[in-house]
Amino acid sequence: MRGEARPTRARISLDALRHNYRVLRASASDARVMAVIKGDGYGHGLERVARTLMPEAECFAVSGVDEARPIRAAGATQPVVLLGGFFSADEIPLHAREAFQPVIHSHWQVEALAAAGHHEPLDIWIKVDSGMHRLGFLPDEVAGVHRRLSALPGIREIGFLTHLAEADDRDSPRTPEQLRTFEQACAGLPGPRSAANSAGTLGWPAAHCDWVRPGISLYGATPFVDQGRARPDLRPVMTLESGLISVKQLPAGAPIGYGSTWRCPEAMPVGVAAIGYGDGYPRHAPSGTPLLVDGVETQLLGRVSMDLITVDLRPCPQARPGARVVLWGDGLPAETVADRAGTIAYELFCQVTPRAPRQVVESQPRT
Ligand SMILES: *Cc1c(COP(=O)(O)O)cnc(C)c1O
Protein backbone atom coordinates (compact mmCIF):
# COMPACT_ATOMS: atom_id res chain seq x y z
CA MET A 1 0.00 0.00 0.00
CA ARG A 2 1.11 3.48 -0.85
CA GLY A 3 1.55 5.52 2.36
CA GLU A 4 -1.04 6.08 5.04
CA ALA A 5 -3.53 8.43 3.35
CA ARG A 6 -6.42 7.36 1.17
CA PRO A 7 -5.11 7.14 -2.40
CA THR A 8 -8.09 8.98 -3.91
CA ARG A 9 -7.38 12.20 -5.80
CA ALA A 10 -8.13 14.23 -8.91
CA ARG A 11 -4.90 15.04 -10.70
CA ILE A 12 -5.11 18.28 -12.68
CA SER A 13 -2.74 18.76 -15.62
CA LEU A 14 -2.14 22.45 -16.26
CA ASP A 15 -0.20 21.53 -19.39
CA ALA A 16 -3.27 19.81 -20.82
CA LEU A 17 -5.36 22.87 -20.00
CA ARG A 18 -2.95 25.16 -21.84
CA HIS A 19 -2.81 22.73 -24.76
CA ASN A 20 -6.61 22.62 -25.07
CA TYR A 21 -6.83 26.40 -24.92
CA ARG A 22 -4.38 26.62 -27.84
CA VAL A 23 -6.33 24.03 -29.84
CA LEU A 24 -9.51 26.09 -29.39
CA ARG A 25 -7.64 29.33 -30.08
CA ALA A 26 -6.37 27.84 -33.36
CA SER A 27 -9.71 26.37 -34.40
CA ALA A 28 -11.38 29.76 -34.08
CA SER A 29 -8.57 31.96 -35.35
CA ASP A 30 -11.17 34.29 -36.85
CA ALA A 31 -12.60 35.07 -33.40
CA ARG A 32 -11.49 35.92 -29.88
CA VAL A 33 -11.80 33.40 -27.05
CA MET A 34 -13.83 33.82 -23.87
CA ALA A 35 -12.68 30.97 -21.61
CA VAL A 36 -15.70 29.64 -19.69
CA ILE A 37 -14.61 28.76 -16.16
CA LYS A 38 -17.93 28.82 -14.26
CA GLY A 39 -18.83 26.03 -11.84
CA ASP A 40 -15.43 26.19 -10.10
CA GLY A 41 -13.70 25.82 -13.47
CA TYR A 42 -15.95 22.82 -14.22
CA GLY A 43 -14.73 21.25 -10.97
CA HIS A 44 -11.04 21.84 -11.77
CA GLY A 45 -10.63 24.84 -9.42
CA LEU A 46 -11.69 28.36 -10.42
CA GLU A 47 -8.56 30.25 -9.44
CA ARG A 48 -6.22 27.48 -10.59
CA VAL A 49 -7.80 27.48 -14.05
CA ALA A 50 -7.91 31.29 -14.21
CA ARG A 51 -4.24 31.62 -13.20
CA THR A 52 -3.18 29.02 -15.77
CA LEU A 53 -5.02 30.69 -18.63
CA MET A 54 -4.40 34.29 -17.53
CA PRO A 55 -1.34 34.89 -19.72
CA GLU A 56 -3.25 33.84 -22.86
CA ALA A 57 -7.01 34.15 -22.37
CA GLU A 58 -8.60 37.23 -23.86
CA CYS A 59 -11.60 37.11 -21.56
CA PHE A 60 -13.14 34.87 -18.88
CA ALA A 61 -16.80 33.92 -18.45
CA VAL A 62 -18.40 32.83 -15.18
CA SER A 63 -21.95 32.75 -13.88
CA GLY A 64 -21.90 35.71 -11.49
CA VAL A 65 -19.91 38.04 -9.20
CA ASP A 66 -19.22 35.32 -6.65
CA GLU A 67 -17.02 33.66 -9.25
CA ALA A 68 -15.79 36.89 -10.87
CA ARG A 69 -14.34 38.46 -7.75
CA PRO A 70 -11.85 35.66 -7.00
CA ILE A 71 -10.59 35.91 -10.59
CA ARG A 72 -9.87 39.62 -10.17
CA ALA A 73 -8.32 38.94 -6.77
CA ALA A 74 -6.05 36.38 -8.44
CA GLY A 75 -4.78 39.13 -10.72
CA ALA A 76 -6.76 38.75 -13.94
CA THR A 77 -6.92 42.02 -15.83
CA GLN A 78 -9.01 40.83 -18.79
CA PRO A 79 -12.77 41.40 -19.02
CA VAL A 80 -14.94 38.94 -17.11
CA VAL A 81 -18.35 38.19 -18.59
CA LEU A 82 -21.09 37.26 -16.11
CA LEU A 83 -23.31 34.82 -17.99
CA GLY A 84 -26.16 35.18 -15.48
CA GLY A 85 -25.73 38.96 -15.32
CA PHE A 86 -26.60 40.51 -11.97
CA PHE A 87 -29.00 38.88 -9.56
CA SER A 88 -29.90 42.18 -7.89
CA ALA A 89 -29.52 45.85 -8.83
CA ASP A 90 -27.12 46.44 -5.91
CA GLU A 91 -24.41 44.69 -7.88
CA ILE A 92 -24.34 47.18 -10.77
CA PRO A 93 -21.74 49.65 -9.37
CA LEU A 94 -19.40 46.75 -8.55
CA HIS A 95 -19.70 45.37 -12.09
CA ALA A 96 -18.78 48.76 -13.51
CA ARG A 97 -15.87 49.28 -11.11
CA GLU A 98 -14.36 45.82 -11.70
CA ALA A 99 -14.92 45.72 -15.51
CA PHE A 100 -17.32 42.81 -15.17
CA GLN A 101 -19.62 42.54 -18.19
CA PRO A 102 -23.10 41.36 -17.20
CA VAL A 103 -25.30 39.51 -19.66
CA ILE A 104 -28.71 41.18 -19.64
CA HIS A 105 -31.37 38.57 -20.24
CA SER A 106 -34.58 39.98 -18.71
CA HIS A 107 -36.65 43.14 -18.66
CA TRP A 108 -36.23 43.52 -14.89
CA GLN A 109 -32.49 43.89 -15.48
CA VAL A 110 -33.06 46.57 -18.12
CA GLU A 111 -35.23 48.47 -15.63
CA ALA A 112 -32.59 48.06 -12.91
CA LEU A 113 -29.94 49.54 -15.21
CA ALA A 114 -32.25 52.43 -16.10
CA ALA A 115 -32.87 53.11 -12.41
CA ALA A 116 -29.22 52.75 -11.32
CA GLY A 117 -27.57 55.92 -10.04
CA HIS A 118 -24.27 57.20 -11.40
CA HIS A 119 -21.66 54.49 -11.93
CA GLU A 120 -18.51 54.01 -13.99
CA PRO A 121 -19.05 53.07 -17.67
CA LEU A 122 -20.33 49.54 -18.03
CA ASP A 123 -19.98 47.14 -20.96
CA ILE A 124 -22.88 44.72 -21.25
CA TRP A 125 -24.19 41.91 -23.43
CA ILE A 126 -27.79 41.47 -24.55
CA LYS A 127 -28.83 37.82 -24.42
CA VAL A 128 -30.88 36.84 -27.46
CA ASP A 129 -33.18 33.83 -27.23
CA SER A 130 -32.62 32.46 -30.73
CA GLY A 131 -34.55 29.26 -30.06
CA MET A 132 -33.20 27.50 -26.97
CA HIS A 133 -35.93 29.16 -24.89
CA ARG A 134 -33.98 29.39 -21.71
CA LEU A 135 -32.59 32.89 -20.98
CA GLY A 136 -32.82 35.87 -23.31
CA PHE A 137 -35.04 38.30 -25.18
CA LEU A 138 -37.16 37.02 -28.02
CA PRO A 139 -35.92 38.19 -31.44
CA ASP A 140 -38.55 40.90 -31.92
CA GLU A 141 -37.70 42.47 -28.54
CA VAL A 142 -34.00 42.87 -29.23
CA ALA A 143 -33.99 46.15 -31.17
CA GLY A 144 -36.18 47.81 -28.53
CA VAL A 145 -34.06 46.58 -25.65
CA HIS A 146 -30.94 47.78 -27.46
CA ARG A 147 -32.47 51.20 -28.07
CA ARG A 148 -33.39 51.57 -24.40
CA LEU A 149 -30.00 50.41 -23.09
CA SER A 150 -27.90 52.41 -25.54
CA ALA A 151 -29.67 55.57 -24.40
CA LEU A 152 -28.51 55.09 -20.79
CA PRO A 153 -25.56 57.29 -19.77
CA GLY A 154 -23.72 54.56 -17.81
CA ILE A 155 -23.64 52.05 -20.69
CA ARG A 156 -20.57 51.96 -22.95
CA GLU A 157 -20.39 48.96 -25.30
CA ILE A 158 -23.27 46.55 -25.96
CA GLY A 159 -22.62 43.08 -27.36
CA PHE A 160 -25.05 40.37 -28.43
CA LEU A 161 -24.88 36.83 -27.16
CA THR A 162 -26.94 33.73 -27.80
CA HIS A 163 -26.68 30.07 -26.82
CA LEU A 164 -26.98 27.03 -29.11
CA ALA A 165 -29.22 24.15 -28.04
CA GLU A 166 -27.99 21.39 -30.37
CA ALA A 167 -24.49 22.31 -31.55
CA ASP A 168 -23.24 19.00 -30.08
CA ASP A 169 -25.11 17.24 -32.91
CA ARG A 170 -23.13 18.12 -36.05
CA ASP A 171 -26.08 17.17 -38.25
CA SER A 172 -28.75 19.17 -36.46
CA PRO A 173 -30.61 21.75 -38.56
CA ARG A 174 -31.36 23.73 -35.38
CA THR A 175 -27.92 25.35 -35.30
CA PRO A 176 -28.13 27.09 -38.71
CA GLU A 177 -31.70 28.10 -37.83
CA GLN A 178 -30.61 29.62 -34.53
CA LEU A 179 -27.70 31.44 -36.19
CA ARG A 180 -30.07 32.90 -38.78
CA THR A 181 -32.52 34.02 -36.10
CA PHE A 182 -29.66 35.55 -34.07
CA GLU A 183 -28.25 37.43 -37.03
CA GLN A 184 -31.66 38.80 -37.99
CA ALA A 185 -32.49 39.80 -34.41
CA CYS A 186 -29.45 42.07 -34.16
CA ALA A 187 -29.14 43.04 -37.85
CA GLY A 188 -27.85 46.58 -38.29
CA LEU A 189 -27.06 47.07 -34.60
CA PRO A 190 -23.44 47.81 -33.67
CA GLY A 191 -21.46 45.63 -31.26
CA PRO A 192 -19.71 42.26 -30.97
CA ARG A 193 -21.57 38.95 -31.41
CA SER A 194 -21.05 35.65 -29.60
CA ALA A 195 -22.84 32.34 -30.19
CA ALA A 196 -20.48 29.37 -29.96
CA ASN A 197 -20.00 27.06 -26.98
CA SER A 198 -17.37 24.28 -27.31
CA ALA A 199 -19.38 22.40 -29.93
CA GLY A 200 -19.96 25.60 -31.89
CA THR A 201 -16.27 26.48 -31.65
CA LEU A 202 -15.03 23.08 -32.88
CA GLY A 203 -17.86 22.04 -35.17
CA TRP A 204 -19.61 25.10 -36.56
CA PRO A 205 -17.29 27.75 -38.08
CA ALA A 206 -20.36 29.78 -39.05
CA ALA A 207 -21.08 30.20 -35.33
CA HIS A 208 -17.71 31.77 -34.47
CA CYS A 209 -18.79 35.42 -34.85
CA ASP A 210 -16.57 37.80 -32.82
CA TRP A 211 -16.17 35.78 -29.61
CA VAL A 212 -16.30 32.01 -29.04
CA ARG A 213 -17.15 30.69 -25.56
CA PRO A 214 -15.65 27.22 -25.05
CA GLY A 215 -16.11 25.52 -21.67
CA ILE A 216 -16.07 21.72 -21.56
CA SER A 217 -13.46 21.37 -24.32
CA LEU A 218 -10.95 23.42 -22.29
CA TYR A 219 -11.03 20.57 -19.81
CA GLY A 220 -10.43 17.99 -22.54
CA ALA A 221 -13.85 16.43 -23.10
CA THR A 222 -15.15 16.30 -26.65
CA PRO A 223 -18.45 18.17 -26.84
CA PHE A 224 -20.02 16.10 -29.62
CA VAL A 225 -22.64 13.37 -29.29
CA ASP A 226 -21.01 11.45 -32.17
CA GLN A 227 -17.77 10.93 -30.29
CA GLY A 228 -16.23 8.64 -32.86
CA ARG A 229 -16.24 11.18 -35.66
CA ALA A 230 -13.14 13.39 -36.01
CA ARG A 231 -12.17 13.57 -32.36
CA PRO A 232 -10.56 16.94 -31.71
CA ASP A 233 -7.00 16.92 -30.34
CA LEU A 234 -7.97 17.57 -26.73
CA ARG A 235 -6.20 16.18 -23.65
CA PRO A 236 -7.90 15.30 -20.39
CA VAL A 237 -7.12 17.87 -17.70
CA MET A 238 -8.56 15.89 -14.78
CA THR A 239 -7.59 12.31 -14.00
CA LEU A 240 -9.68 10.86 -11.18
CA GLU A 241 -7.72 8.09 -9.56
CA SER A 242 -7.55 5.84 -6.54
CA GLY A 243 -5.95 2.54 -5.62
CA LEU A 244 -6.86 -1.05 -4.89
CA ILE A 245 -7.07 -1.69 -1.15
CA SER A 246 -8.17 -5.33 -1.36
CA VAL A 247 -7.81 -8.21 -3.82
CA LYS A 248 -9.36 -11.63 -3.47
CA GLN A 249 -10.37 -14.70 -5.40
CA LEU A 250 -14.13 -15.36 -5.37
CA PRO A 251 -15.98 -18.52 -6.38
CA ALA A 252 -18.41 -18.77 -9.30
CA GLY A 253 -21.84 -17.43 -8.31
CA ALA A 254 -20.56 -15.05 -5.60
CA PRO A 255 -22.79 -11.93 -5.49
CA ILE A 256 -21.09 -8.53 -5.36
CA GLY A 257 -22.10 -5.58 -3.16
CA TYR A 258 -25.40 -4.03 -2.09
CA GLY A 259 -28.44 -5.59 -3.67
CA SER A 260 -26.33 -8.43 -5.13
CA THR A 261 -26.79 -6.90 -8.58
CA TRP A 262 -23.83 -8.75 -10.13
CA ARG A 263 -22.67 -12.36 -9.69
CA CYS A 264 -19.31 -13.84 -10.61
CA PRO A 265 -19.88 -16.00 -13.72
CA GLU A 266 -16.77 -18.02 -12.85
CA ALA A 267 -14.10 -18.24 -10.16
CA MET A 268 -12.28 -14.92 -10.55
CA PRO A 269 -10.12 -12.25 -8.93
CA VAL A 270 -12.03 -9.20 -7.66
CA GLY A 271 -10.56 -5.96 -6.30
CA VAL A 272 -11.90 -3.15 -4.15
CA ALA A 273 -10.82 0.45 -4.84
CA ALA A 274 -11.01 3.31 -2.33
CA ILE A 275 -13.43 5.55 -4.19
CA GLY A 276 -17.19 5.92 -4.21
CA TYR A 277 -20.05 8.34 -4.61
CA GLY A 278 -18.77 10.21 -1.53
CA ASP A 279 -15.87 11.28 -3.75
CA GLY A 280 -18.08 12.11 -6.70
CA TYR A 281 -17.88 8.87 -8.65
CA PRO A 282 -21.43 8.48 -10.04
CA ARG A 283 -23.56 6.08 -8.01
CA HIS A 284 -25.57 5.27 -11.10
CA ALA A 285 -22.57 3.91 -13.00
CA PRO A 286 -23.67 0.37 -13.85
CA SER A 287 -21.68 -2.87 -13.82
CA GLY A 288 -19.58 -2.80 -16.96
CA THR A 289 -18.55 0.86 -16.67
CA PRO A 290 -14.92 0.97 -17.84
CA LEU A 291 -11.98 1.83 -15.59
CA LEU A 292 -8.24 1.21 -15.66
CA VAL A 293 -6.23 -0.90 -13.22
CA ASP A 294 -2.49 -0.37 -13.70
CA GLY A 295 -3.34 0.97 -17.15
CA VAL A 296 -5.38 -2.09 -18.19
CA GLU A 297 -9.01 -1.50 -19.10
CA THR A 298 -11.46 -3.47 -16.98
CA GLN A 299 -14.91 -2.89 -15.50
CA LEU A 300 -16.91 -1.88 -12.47
CA LEU A 301 -18.87 -4.69 -10.76
CA GLY A 302 -22.06 -4.22 -8.72
CA ARG A 303 -23.28 -1.06 -7.04
CA VAL A 304 -21.10 1.91 -6.19
CA SER A 305 -20.82 2.46 -2.40
CA MET A 306 -20.02 5.74 -0.66
CA ASP A 307 -16.32 4.97 -0.15
CA LEU A 308 -15.70 1.89 -2.27
CA ILE A 309 -16.20 0.24 -5.63
CA THR A 310 -15.61 -3.35 -6.69
CA VAL A 311 -13.70 -4.12 -9.88
CA ASP A 312 -13.17 -7.06 -12.19
CA LEU A 313 -9.52 -8.16 -12.12
CA ARG A 314 -9.79 -10.88 -14.76
CA PRO A 315 -8.04 -8.69 -17.41
CA CYS A 316 -5.23 -7.92 -14.90
CA PRO A 317 -4.89 -10.93 -12.58
CA GLN A 318 -1.47 -9.71 -11.45
CA ALA A 319 -2.94 -6.58 -9.80
CA ARG A 320 -2.22 -6.28 -6.06
CA PRO A 321 -3.32 -3.88 -3.30
CA GLY A 322 -1.78 -0.51 -4.12
CA ALA A 323 -2.40 -0.88 -7.87
CA ARG A 324 -3.43 2.42 -9.46
CA VAL A 325 -7.06 2.71 -10.52
CA VAL A 326 -8.09 5.42 -13.00
CA LEU A 327 -11.80 6.24 -13.09
CA TRP A 328 -11.47 8.72 -15.95
CA GLY A 329 -8.89 11.01 -17.51
CA ASP A 330 -5.51 9.78 -18.66
CA GLY A 331 -6.24 6.86 -21.03
CA LEU A 332 -10.00 6.81 -20.43
CA PRO A 333 -12.13 9.74 -21.66
CA ALA A 334 -14.58 11.07 -19.07
CA GLU A 335 -17.27 11.19 -21.78
CA THR A 336 -17.00 7.39 -22.26
CA VAL A 337 -17.61 6.85 -18.54
CA ALA A 338 -20.35 9.49 -18.51
CA ASP A 339 -22.11 7.79 -21.38
CA ARG A 340 -22.22 4.48 -19.48
CA ALA A 341 -23.44 6.23 -16.32
CA GLY A 342 -26.26 8.02 -18.18
CA THR A 343 -24.78 11.48 -17.71
CA ILE A 344 -22.31 13.90 -19.32
CA ALA A 345 -18.67 14.71 -18.58
CA TYR A 346 -19.75 18.17 -17.33
CA GLU A 347 -21.62 16.57 -14.44
CA LEU A 348 -18.84 14.10 -13.63
CA PHE A 349 -16.33 16.95 -13.34
CA CYS A 350 -18.61 19.18 -11.26
CA GLN A 351 -19.53 16.39 -8.86
CA VAL A 352 -16.02 15.46 -7.73
CA THR A 353 -16.13 16.31 -4.02
CA PRO A 354 -13.45 18.01 -1.90
CA ARG A 355 -12.73 14.60 -0.37
CA ALA A 356 -10.87 13.83 -3.61
CA PRO A 357 -8.13 16.46 -3.29
CA ARG A 358 -7.06 18.21 -6.48
CA GLN A 359 -3.40 17.50 -7.08
CA VAL A 360 -1.77 19.73 -9.65
CA VAL A 361 0.69 18.25 -12.10
CA GLU A 362 2.45 20.60 -14.47
CA SER A 363 2.80 18.06 -17.26
CA GLN A 364 1.31 14.70 -18.00
CA PRO A 365 2.24 12.19 -20.70
CA ARG A 366 0.15 12.25 -23.88
CA THR A 367 -2.51 9.59 -24.10
C1 LIG B 1 -21.55 27.06 -19.98
C2 LIG B 1 -21.74 27.97 -21.10
C3 LIG B 1 -20.87 27.94 -22.21
C4 LIG B 1 -19.82 26.87 -22.40
O1 LIG B 1 -20.44 25.70 -22.89
P1 LIG B 1 -19.63 24.35 -23.19
O2 LIG B 1 -20.62 23.43 -23.76
O3 LIG B 1 -19.11 23.90 -21.85
O4 LIG B 1 -18.52 24.71 -24.08
C5 LIG B 1 -21.04 28.90 -23.18
N1 LIG B 1 -22.01 29.85 -23.08
C6 LIG B 1 -22.87 29.88 -22.05
C7 LIG B 1 -23.93 30.93 -22.02
C8 LIG B 1 -22.77 28.94 -21.03
O5 LIG B 1 -23.63 28.98 -20.01
TrEMBL record:
Q: Name one GO cellular component term.
A: cytosol
**A GO BP annotation:** D-alanine biosynthetic process
Modified residue annotations for N6-(pyridoxal phosphate)lysine: 38
Reactions performed catalytically = L-alanine = D-alanine
PANTHER family membership:
ALANINE RACEMASE, ALANINE RACEMASE, CATABOLIC-RELATED
Q: Does the keyword Cell membrane apply?
A: no
Question: Where, by residue number, does substrate bind?
Answer: 134, 306
The coenzyme or cofactor needed here is: pyridoxal 5'-phosphate
Pathway the protein acts in: Amino-acid biosynthesis; D-alanine biosynthesis; D-alanine from L-alanine: step 1/1
Stated EC number for the protein is 5.1.1.1
The record's active-site residues are: 38 (proton acceptor), 258 (proton acceptor)
Q: Which GO terms describe its molecular function?
A: alanine racemase activity; pyridoxal phosphate binding
What function is annotated for this protein?
Catalyzes the interconversion of L-alanine and D-alanine. May also act on other amino acids.
Q: Which NCBIfam families match?
A: alr
Output this protein's name: Alanine racemase
What InterPro entries does its record include?
Ala_racemase (IPR000821), Ala_racemase/Decarboxylase_C (IPR009006), Ala_racemase_C (IPR011079), Ala_racemase_N (IPR001608), Ala_racemase_pyridoxalP-BS (IPR020622), PLP-binding_barrel (IPR029066)
Q: Please report the stretch or stretches of sequence annotated as the Alanine racemase C-terminal domain.
A: 237-361
Question: According to its UniProt record, what is one Pfam family this protein matches?
Answer: Ala_racemase_C
Alphabetically list the UniProt keywords: Isomerase, Pyridoxal phosphate
Please indicate which superkingdom the organism of origin belongs to: Bacteria
Write out the similarity annotation: Belongs to the alanine racemase family.
Q: Which PROSITE patterns match?
A: ALANINE_RACEMASE
